[in-house]
Amino acid sequence: MSEEGRFIIHLTQQEGFQINAAFDWKRAPDLLMDEPPPLGEQKGPNASRLLAAAAANCLSASLLYCVFKEEPPDNCLRSEVICIMGRNAQKRQRITGLEVTLIVSAAITDSPRFARCKTLFEDFCVVSASIRQGIPLRVTVQNEAGEMLHQSE
After folding, report:
1. DSSP characters for 54-89?
2. N or C, which terminus of the chain has less Cβ within 10 Å?
3. Where do the domains of the chain lie?
4. Terminal CA-to-CA distance of the chain, rounded, Å?
5. 47-151 has which CATH code?
6. What are the pLDDT digits (tens) for 108-144?
7. What pTM does this model have?
């Protein structure tokens, strides 16, 4: 599950604030990024949205891998991420926090590995562990009924 070394993603400005991101995986489609008005036309996610999505995706994949290894069942996990925006002392807009909620089905909670994985998976998520060094990040795991099963410290 780990990636060693480096990879390259090529970004090319198209028009205005629209930027095409071409990934280093041949089967991965390009992604159009854009800014919200008044700068852009909101034709794609901006960098803040991609960062938030990357954190939630990485945490989701990390939990699935820990519980099931190679073959997780379909549709057993959903996630939501709240990205909190604010201004720093210089009045520059910054991401001031992320709140990720993983909603897991019984396929996950019934697994004998879940009890151990819910205390380990965060540490193995490359993205969230890196973000957490500079942005407060809270992670919650809950079941489909909304009961909290785990919350990061």
Report:
1. HHHHHHHHHHHHHHHTT-PPTT-EEEEEEEEEEE-T
2. C
3. 1-45, 47-151
4. 25
5. 3.30.300.20
6. 999 999 999 999 999 999 999 999 998 888 999 999 9
7. 0.88
